[in-house]
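Entry: Antitoxin SocA-like Panacea domain-containing protein
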Amino acid sequence: MLINREREKIINLVAYFADNVNYLGKTKLFKLLYFVDFEHYKLTGRSVTGLDYYAWKMGPVPTMLFDEIERPEPDMQEKVKVQQKTLQNNKKMFCIEAIAQFDSRLFTKRELRLIGEFAQKYKEAKAEDMVEATHLENLPWSKIYNSPTGKQKIIPYELALRTQELEEMKAFISERQDFIGLFK
């Protein structure tokens, strides 16, 4: 399997959240990744992980990770252990535990700050709380999921921005791509 920087960041983020929040299962993990990515996009015009999120009933889901959490690839297994547990209400939960240290060198200072802020804010939250937080009206998930054809559709990062911010960010992204193109 090809390991790229985005994949390394994703795996390390899973390990970080596993070490720094309680009650980490698939749902809570997906919501934390979504919050970090969309907030970072709002600030910089790019996500932290490069993941695409889809508008599923329970909230935004990075489909690339959905199945892998249950059956992790070897590189993910080096950082985290996933175990299925039965809760008191007989529901099944995939509990995620870090088994290797988080590598902060993969992240910028801004990314680390955001990751830490969301871990702190949702440290004690349960999955149900996280679902509620992502379903607030006028947030990106809600805008897509509640549209006539939005269920199961990709959630565009641009929805994290207000109209004026969107125009400014599009200009910034275009300039950034032109600049990067000079070095190719």
